[in-house]
Amino acid sequence: MDKNKIDVEVTRLRQEAKRTTQKTIIIGTLSIAIFLLVWQLLYSLKIVDNSRIASPIQVLSAIGSKVSDPRPDGNTLFQNIWASFKLAMVGFFLALVIGLPLGLLMGWYKPVDKFVRPIFEIIRPLPPIAWIPIIIVLLGIGTVAKSFIIFFTTFVPIVINSYTGIKGTKQVYIDLAKTCGYSNWKVFKTVGVPSAMPLAFAGMQIALGNGWGTLVAAEMLASSEGLGYMIFMGRNFGRIDIIIAGMFVIGIIGLFLTSIIDRIEKIVLKWRFVQK
Amino acid sequence: MEVCTKMTKKTKNIIVNLLPFISIGLFIGFWFLVAGKPSSIIPTPYEVYLRVVKLIEKPISHTSIWGHVWASTKRVLFGLLLACFFGIPFGLLVGWNKKFRRVFKPLFELIRPIPALAWIPLLTLWFGIGESSKIALVFVGCLMPVVVNTYSGVSLIPKLNVDVAKIYGASNSQIITDIVLPSSLSAIMAGISTAMGTGWIVVLAAEMISAYQGLGFLIIRGSNVSDLALVIFAMLLIGLIGSVLSSLLRFLERKLCPWKVEIKN
């Protein structure tokens, strides 16, 4: 009898929760649809200056035609996406391979921290795009140079987060491992590194997001391909549909990249998510 | 034996404490090495110093070095203030009011993933290449972190606190001023300091693309006339101002929400 009552109550609450999510989704979709409609109307009724904005339909058709049409910047959409993606990945992995071990070692071994920190503190506050002139002088304007700019953007959050992560290792675990006779290196490997991983992954997400954002600027200042170059050329040719389409493509790919990191985290750090 | 280990420990400590100086020394030595070759265009630290002295005497594009610093700082601060002025109320509303959240959060999520720097072409098209387009850019760059942090600050408030206030008959506006704002204040401050970092990056990019004043302009000017000493000096200034501003914000945060520090201790 009682159990039945509870069951009824649970199903009622579940349905209610389901209804709220449905409502949220419906209202959200409606809100975006109304936004697009108002935007289209503002354009079609010429309430806003048509030389300064493109309508949603034009933006969509710009994306559609850019898939095969290299105008106005000389590359099709996928060529541009691939160029940007390649750069972001090279810079990001370089930063990961150097930054992750560096941050972990800095957090664990005091001498490493003392030695690296001063130089890191010089690099840290500098916005990555400020490096562009120096990098151009040293490495030219090729792929390597741009990857280096992405490297500088992604390096700092990766180091900081893996450092903070390993610093937050619970002392009890360290003591326990030491009591069991582990050497410092083994404690670092088996206790320190795994407990730093959640924050390190958060750092990677931030890093990739930042790197993707900076890429646009790097491509505007020195490039002949890529999504940043595409929207910059759109600006130069007065093609607003290309600019807005490019902005959305950049946004969507940025989301996609960070969600990949999320997915990898769920695979690598299975133990964090199974506990339930 | 015991004395011996103590000694080695002591010397070890001294060596560890000397390491920062060694690394800085190595860094400067490496710099001299790279710059020292006659064919190198990288200036030595001494050449950078000479350039600074010359810069203080002879302004670039009719603006003294302080004028350039102020031009960039002004843009960042204006944009940041505007972003706080609109972003904090918007974040509070999205976090607090369910109807408002349902309508406006999807729209915000639509725009949020676009990196601040990707707005440069559109905003320069709308606002020209003058002051207003730079402030608008900083505004867009700062708005996202401010809104996101305010929103998550509000949604992390313990429900218990709100319920207690409701039971004691607090009005909605009282709840907001007495509970919601103070509890989310440290998250908001964190958002503002992230925003300021973004603001600096954005303003530099905007100035590097088109400006006649500001630190980004100095960098691009130095790069165009192969005056790398100027570039390096501008970079140092940017780093310095960035650290000064972020420590100012930290100070402000300590003053505004002292309880956060107490909890840490």
Description:
The complex is a heterodimer of chains A (276) and B (265). Chain A has 276 residues and is mainly α. In chain A, 81% of the residues lie in helices and 0% in strands. Chain A has helices at 2-44, 56-66, 77-108, 110-123, 132-139, 143-167, 171-179, 184-221, 227-236, 240-268, 270-274. In chain A, helix 3 (77-108) runs parallel beside helix 6 (143-167), helix 3 (77-108) runs antiparallel to helix 8 and helix 7 packs across helix 8 (184-221). Chain A is flat. Chain B has 265 residues and is mainly α. In chain B, helix 7 packs across helix 8 (172-209). Chain B folds into 2 domains: 2-40; 49-264, Orthogonal Bundle (MetI-like fold). Chains A and B meet through helix 1, helix 4, helix 5, helix 8 and helix 9 of A and helix 1, helix 4, helix 5, helix 8 and helix 9 of B.
How would you describe the oligomerization state of the chains in this entry? Answer: heterodimer
Percent of residues of chain B in beta strands?
under 5%
Rg on CA atoms of chain B, Å: 24 Å
First and last CA, distance of chain A:
30 Å
Q: Tell me the total number of β-strands of chain B.
A: 0
> How many domain modules of chain A?
2
